[in-house]
Amino acid sequence: MLADLFLNRTAVDFLEIVADHYLDAPAEKERELELLAGNFPIIPHAINLSLGSAEGIDQEYLAKLADLIDRLQPPWWSEHIAFTQAGGVEIGHLTPLPFTREAIDHFCRNVATVREAIAVPLILENISYTVNLPFAEMSEAQFLREILERTDCGLLLDVTNLYANSVNQRFDPRRFLDELPLERVVQLHFVGGHWHDGVWVDSHSTATPDAVWRLLEEVLQRAPVKGVLLERDENLPPFSELAGELELARTIGRRCGRWT
Amino acid sequence: MDLKTTQQLLARLYTDAGLRQKFFSEPTAVAAEFGIAADEVRQLAHLSQQQVEGFARSLERKRLQELRRALPVTCQVLGARLEELFARHAAAYQPRGLHRHAADAVAFAAFLSRTPSDIPEATSELARYEAICLRFRLGRSWPLVARFRFDPRVAAGAQRRPGFTIACWLRLGGRVRHLLLTLPIRGLSRGVQHRDTRPTQIAVD
Predict the structure, then answer these.
(1) Which of A41, A81, A226, B111 has the most Cβ atoms closer than 10 angstroms to its Cβ?
(2) What is the DSSP string of B31-81?
(3) Which residues in chain A are closer than 8 Å to B44, comparing Cβ atoms?
(4) How near does any CA of chain A get to the CA of B158, in Å?
(5) What pLDDT was estimated at residue B44?
């Protein structure tokens, strides 16, 4: 993949790295990061800060993440509206928060803590989920809106996650978009998933389906998106297929007047 | 029920099959363990067992998928037995930390070596070999030497003859290399130098 990337440099405008892969990393990974950062703008994407944890932020993890972001000096970095650990248990996946005021309060406190360590703007991503928590005091869209407004963060809108939730939770994704502060959208994620046991899984493993392309176009028409990222990291096809999807996203963005 | 308690309970429900089973049959007893008041249990009763079990299975599949990447030959050799053995390991071990998937693989290799009656010794030695490769690749700078009772190159195949093998890992010119020297029962056979030519995974999310 790395060789294909360099052979097709013009097909890729920026890269997103999973920040965790470069924390406490061996020398080979450090060199890989140097090579990538020397040739592409890099956006760090953290997955284990657990911004929604009522127990607060892991300071050791935060210090390592802050160091990585400081070295890369990206225009923004991203994390998820989720929690990944509690009571000494690492869940191993992004996990939904209850849509409550208490969860929003903890989330905002954690973002304030993170901002003391990292000055680079943070944007927050919506997750896909398959467990509905029974403590909701508001809708998911209201929950996201309040978090984004109280933290004054940008939104990394994962269009595929939105599609997955709309299919699994049976709601209209366009009405969901109506409730979001779309003026805060900075970046998009898109990719394909698959069906498993009657659930549409955001597995990053297939070509982007038509329904996600249509949703992507709708968001690009309505939101001031700066970057669109194909989040394919499983079951990788030949690079030409990935480049084709990137080109299509670029074309849609152009059609929507987001870039030239 | 405060968020901290809720998250602690959810984290355990997602990752602990025993607690899950108990919770969905006796929610009040589990709630009491977590200091949750009886009247709050009614709220928790709305948690869908089907959804929680489905999410828990997806977490196990993810761990297994990472294990297949970390110990590819071992997993291939274990074949149909892999899932059952991994389920036994996963029930007793929860990985943590930045390199949690590597930690999981190393712990699984240790689990295999503790269950000699279940699998051939050659397979547990193969797992130990792959786990050491993984640990070395994750950042050790100094050379590492380990001894094996089977040649890991043939432990996967039909020729599972015991063969005293010394393996050495080192970094040369910034790349991981390792050397294997095997002494079969009938005497010295060969020494082979391997260069690590596996492509580095690009971490693009």
Answers:
(1) A81
(2) HHHTT--HHHHHHHTTS-HHHHHHHHHHHHHHHHHHHHHHSHHHHHHHGGG
(3) 134
(4) 30
(5) 84
Q: Where are the alpha helices (DSSP H) in chain B?
A: 3-15, 17-25, 27-33, 38-44, 49-70, 72-78, 82-92, 100-113, 121-137, 152-155
B43 to A95: CB separation less than 8 angstroms, yes or no? no
CA quadruple A131, A133, A139, A142: dihedral positive or negative?
A: negative
Q: Classify strands A185-190 and A227-230 as parallel, antiparallel or unpaired.
A: parallel
Cα–Cα dist A186/A184, whole Å = 6
Q: Is A166 helix (H, G, I), strand (E, B) or coil?
A: helix
Put simply, the answer to whether A85 touches B137 (Cβ < 8 Å) is no
A27-77 pLDDT, tens digit each: 889 999 999 999 999 999 999 999 999 999 999 999 999 999 999 999 999
Name which of A15, A24, A28, A132 to mutate to probe chain B: the one with the most chain B Cβ atoms within 10 A of its Cβ.
Answer: A28
What pLDDT, on a 0 to 100 scale, did the predictor assign at position A158? 98
The answer to whether residues B180 and B153 touch, using CB atoms and an 8 Å cutoff, is yes
Q: Which residues between 49 and 88 in chain B have a beta carbon less than 8 angstroms from any beta carbon of chain A?
A: 51-52, 54-55, 58-59, 62-63
B170-200 in b/e form (b: 16+ CB < 10 A) is bbeeeebebebbbebeeeeeeeeeeeeeeee
Chain A CB contacts of B203 under 8 Å are 17-18, 21-22, 29
Distance CA A68, CA B190 (A): 45
- The letter for the amino acid at A164 is A
Q: How far apart are CA A22 and CA B98, in angstroms?
A: 9
- Whether complex ipTM tops 0.90: yes
Alpha-carbon distance A39 to A218, whole Å? 31
For A168-224, the pLDDT digits (tens) are: 999 999 999 999 999 999 999 999 999 999 999 999 999 999 999 999 999 999 999
Q: Where are the alpha helices (DSSP H) in chain A?
A: 2-7, 27-37, 59-72, 101-117, 140-151, 159-168, 173-179, 210-222, 239-255
Residue A43 · residue A187 · CB < 8 Å:
yes
Instruction: Report the distance separating Cα A236 and Cα A241, nearest Å.
Output: 9
- End-to-end Cα distance, chain A: 28
